[in-house]
Design brief:
The chain is α/β, with parallel strands linked by helices. The structure holds S-adenosyl-L-homocysteine.
Length: about 350
């Protein structure tokens, strides 16, 4: 057994190594170490979730954004983004199609669009809640006050995705303009958790200026926060941002981080993200084989998809909802897993009874 394999086993045993050890692991892992981590992570996921992969229907309902994150294609300074927003009826139409297709979770994601006031968001959430009482509603609309989060929760939202992006304040400052701080991001995450949302954090792998130490800090941060969901994908440059010439993250690093996260937080709901499917055809399937247990196909209307571009070459932008969906179901079956038509809530219990 190599030193890295002992470190991986330590993570699995709940004895997360200290920062320097984790950083060394991330810096020096070999393809064999990665396969070692992936096979343990797969086993851990299958023990808890069986071969089920939970599907979430992603509705990208606005690409207006008041923020200016340096990596993101829908940042406000990108004058070439073609902006759109969906109305309540269009959102409900997506949900109706999604429910018919078998989805029991809808994820409403968007830029931080001032048009969508708390009142409008609450109205959308209540309308979905009323028409689809059996479905989970996930929001991913950025940083808000505790009062706003509470209002959306009371209207019927169950879950919230807000990646922390990086757990290092100095690194955070290189990815964001000065008005955005890690401190507020973390405040948001803690509010969401204490209100009772199933909450997701996460980061890009290979974002500009990121070091192995930064990723190790992310791991320790996530271990401590103990969120219900974690979103991890490779950084991919967008031509309309200041990071247009930066190197993308790698498939291998992303897969390795997914496996480590699965071993560190065995119960966490862990998507194989669209960015992973974009960096390599079949990337999401590899994510599942590295310990992921969720996929989030896009169910936004065909005509707006090409405009929700956080990064270049995003997959599925020319598809109709039914296409992205059935091809992905097939791909998941082909690797021996089973697309699940259920809410797939976080299982709070530690032991697995079946
Ligand atoms: N406005 C919401 C939703 C953000 S988009 C929010 O603030 O949470 C969802 C995620 O996409 C972001 O959290 C970020 O981690 C990721 N993302 C943005 N630009 C990206 C890029 N260029 N490459 C890869 N992932 C990106």
């Amino acid at each position: 057994m190599t030193q890295n394999q002992s470190r991986i086993l330590a993570v699995k045993e709940g004895q997360t190594p200290p920062l320097a050890e984790l950083a060394a692991l991330i810096r020096t892992y070999t393809p064999e170490d990665r396969e070692f981590a992936a096979s343990l992570a797969r086993e851990t996921a299958v023990k808890r979730f069986g071969k089920k992969i939970y599907f979430r229907g992603l509705i990208e309902f606005t690409n207006y954004c008041k923020n200016d994150c340096l990596y993101c294609g829908i940042r406000r300074s990108n004058r070439n983004a073609v902006r759109y927003r969906l109305g309540l009826d269009e959102i409900l139409t997506c949900c109706r199609w999604g429910e018919q297709a078998g989805f029991r979770t809808f994820v409403l994601q968007g830029g931080e669009d001032p048009y969508f006031t708390d009142e409008r968001v609450a109205e959308i959430v209540s309308a979905i809640r009323r028409e689809f009482p059996d479905c989970a509603i996930t929001l991913s609309i950025g940083e808000k006050s505790r009062e706003s989060y509470q209002r959306f929760f009371d209207a019927g939202a169950d879950r919230y995705l807000l990646r922390h992006e990086t757990a290092s304040p100095a690194h955070y400052a290189r990815l964001h303009p000065p008005e955005l701080t890690l401190e507020n991001r973390v405040r948001c995450l803690k509010d969401l958790i204490s209100i009772g949302y199933q909450t997701g954090c996460g980061m890009m792998v290979g974002s500009p200026f990121q070091t192995a130490e930064n990723l190790a800090e992310d791991l320790l941060f996530m271990k401590d926060l103990n969120p219900q969901m974690i979103g991890i994908g490779p950084f991919l440059p967008h031509h309309g941002t200041p990071f247009r010439d930066q190197k993308p993250g790698t498939l291998e690093d992303t897969l390795f981080l997914l496996s480590i996260v699965r071993l560190m937080l065995p119960k966490v709901l862990l998507p194989a993200t669209t960015a992973l499917g974009t960096i390599r055809p079949g990337g999401r399937e590899l994510g599942i084989l590295a310990g992921a247990n969720v996929v989030m196909p896009n169910i936004s209307p065909a005509d707006v998809r090409k405009n929700y571009l956080l990064y270049d070459r995003k997959i599925g932008t020319a598809d109709a909802p039914a296409d992205s969906y059935s091809a992905l179901r097939e791909a998941i079956r082909s690797i021996g897993y089973e697309p699940a038509n259920e809410r797939g809530d976080y299982q709070w219990e530690d032991d697995i009874h079946d």
